[in-house]
Design a protein that fits this description.
Blueprint: H1 6-13, H2 16-27, H3 33-40, E1 45-47, E2 54-59, E3 64-65, H4 67-79, E4 84-87, E5 92-98, H5 100-111, E6 125-130, H6 145-158, E7 168-173, E8 187-191, E9 197-201, E10 213-219, H7 224-238, H8 249-256, H9 258-272, E11 301-303, E12 310-314, H10 323-334, E13 340-343, E14 349-354, H11 356-366, E15 379-380, H12 394-407, E16 418-421, E17 435-444, E18 447-456, E19 469-475, H13 479-493, H14 497-500, H15 505-513
Parallel strand pairs: 6-7, 7-8, 15-16, 16-17
Antiparallel strand pairs: 1-2, 2-5, 3-13, 4-5, 8-9, 9-10, 11-12, 12-14, 13-14, 17-18, 18-19
Helix pairs in contact: 2-3, 2-5, 4-10, 7-9, 8-9, 10-11, 12-13
Length: about 525
Amino acid sequence: MTLINRKMKDLLLQLVPKYRQLSDDFFSGRISPIQYMGASGSFGSYAERGGQTAMLRLRFIAGAISHDQLAYLADCIETHAIQKIHFTSGQALQFHHLSGPEVLDIYAEALEHDVFGTASGGSHFSSIAADPLRGIDPAETFDISPYVRAAAAYRLAVFPTLRLPRKFKIAFTASRRNETHATFKDLGFVWDGNGGFDVYAAGGLGPRPQMGLCLARHTEPSQCLYYLDAMLQLFSEHGNYEAHARARSRYLLLTLGEEEFRRLFTEYLEKAWEKELDIMPEPGVAAPGAMPPVVQADSRIQPQKQDGLYYIHYQLRGGLPKKEVFTALLRYLATCPEAAGRLGMDSSFYAINLRPDEAARALAIIAGDTAKDDFHASVACIGATTCQMGIRDAQACLTALLQALDADDVATRYLPQLHISGCHFSCGGHQAGSIGLRGALKIVDKHPYPAYVVSAGGSSRLGQEAFGEEIATLKEEDLPRFFTALAAVLEEAGQPFRDWYPAHQKHLAALVQTFE
């Protein structure tokens, strides 16, 4: 599917001269990083710490990388000598340490391949999240793909004229795992298992996290754009344009109160019904026949619902692939006739639509760059050495933690996947992690130490949604000792953390506090 038609591409390319002037002003020192950030987010770019380089965020249709885009990405990485790539927790790719001209060149050329940085940051309808295995998961009962694509097309269509006070994120899910956080996004569509979507609004992570308010039950899937349009118009016309820190949609619900919020939403929904926003989905994937045989005893290779096709799961530390490995994988997948890619919400990558021999070959390419367990596949934001907003370097923290435990041969098989954010903005999703770490500063005997606030019990699973409870603040240097001790407890219990924790919350709190 071509998401960006020629007219839209030309419209977006007309913005390049404006961004070129902005970029020139920033890199020549005529404007500050904050001034640059206020406008550059519209192009998916932000300055990095130090003000000498920038990053570019590239989005696809909720992380779905088409076959043709595989080769383009490999070409882009090699042509522009990209040195740092980050799989984000929002199903996007970020290229780091770019010069101003490099950002402009990649932004413009990517549009020709339906890859866009447009509105990927700033005060825009910035992202759409969806189950990464939609349409191919043997366990799914409904394919949300047509509705995700329709929302993506709508997003670009309204970009030129839609004014919002802050970023706006939506999500779709048909999975009990709810890894897209659809019940606590600015707007979320949750398949109810019985022919419709439940609609949630005004949720989100970050400062003052909030679960979404359920606005409707069992809505007709073909009508989801009416709910999206209504919520966007409500946010546009009633959002807070004065206080940036209180401008996300969850604050609008807090300000208005539930009753008034519902009344206004209903009013905007009535107006939306006057538009023509029905979605006519193309035919879905046929129900699977006999399940294909397992290629090999490796959990990274799994069968799809389509007979004879498989996907592989590429998980790695903190979402940072080795450039050579990722490029080689992209090059190989581009030679597989049906192959495509999907970006996961946990900073991972899926190669899909592979024949048995192709799956085995792809797995061999990534063999030296994959995490051995959930703990080694922990999620981390890009970190304060790169991000201007960060307090702590989440990537360095994760690297040091893994190195320390591996050096001591600590058994990590039962430890959970961590979610680490360098600050309170939760770019690493720490608030929804079973164990989360948030960058902080700890004062001990009047001396400041790099530290992390430890939270536990976060969950996005449908019916079990919870934000983690903050239970301790540990100096960064003490984290390896805590996780070594926790690993020993879990080994003795013979249980993964997710199974052990519900009955041992007080045990965990007591354990972590011994390291405070």
